[in-house]
Amino acid sequence: xxxxxxxxxxxxxxxxxxxKPKKNQVLQLNKIYKENCIETLHRMPDEFVDMxxxxxxxxDLREYNGYHFPVEEIAxxxxxxxxxxxxxxxxxxxxxxxxxxxxxxxxxxxAFRKAGFKVHxxxxxxxxxxxxxxxxxxxxxxxEYMFCFAKGSPKTFNPLTEPTKSAGQKIKAFRxxxxxxxxxxxxxxGRQIKTERKVSNIFSYNVGTSSSGDKIxxxxxxxxxxxxxxxxxxxxxxxxxxxxxxxxxxxxTAKVAHLLKRxxxxxxxxxxxxxxxxxxxxxxxxxxxxxxxxxxx
Length: 297
Hints:
Layout: E1 8-12, E2 15-19, E3 31-33, H1 37-43, E4 49-54, H2 71-81, E5 82-92, E6 96-97, E7 100-101, H3 104-115, E8 118-127, E9 143-150, E10 161-163, E11 175-177, E12 180-182, E13 196-198, E14 202-205, H4 226-236, E15 242-245, H5 252-259, E16 263-267, H6 271-287
Parallel strand pairs: 3-16, 4-5, 4-15, 8-14, 15-16
Antiparallel strand pairs: 1-2, 5-9, 6-7, 8-9, 10-13, 11-12
């Protein structure tokens, strides 16, 4: 269903007020808006956000207090509100119905492409310790897609690296080419192999209670691993860039963005999850010497 034109709540000095959304109304950073993301996006100026990272409540796989979302409208709005060179990291998976996967994840990817984004990278988020389940005549489901949708060419790329096993050795005279095995260009023969290389686009993380030290976060049914958010924010943004989460949930994006010295804001329609985020973030706001605003959350 669409949330366009619905009403939302804001809190000031512990008083709840109701008002209608105004387009391009100034938004306050480092705040979670208790509203659906269509309303928040409607009030953002264009070319505002450096990065969005989120995981929508896809395919009814997760109980999200009964809320659904219009992906085409969200994708179109994100395109206008994302800065040129900015990215959207969209984490999504598919449900299996009567032995047939829904492919909702790919429908989302096509929706973002239709909105104007490039499908810059299709990464995998692999769960080291997935929930035990009997998948019938299928292998255990242990990954989700982590799409990187880019508005043009990404303006920031701080790649994660890992040591190379052959560091210091010299390149030999063979390589794999389009036509098969072939010769390395003369200028590369004998060149030393670098000590580091970019990691692959398959990322593995622990899930469940080992993915965060904040016990209150697990009152939400499906939280991001903090390391996943840290890796993606570090890769695609620089300090003081603006990071947005359309479905803030338990506040993982806000916490990690704060610790990485990024500006942030989020949308969350569930009052229950907003309260979880508020309690979770309080100690980190103090630690970072950022005074909590009395109309946050």
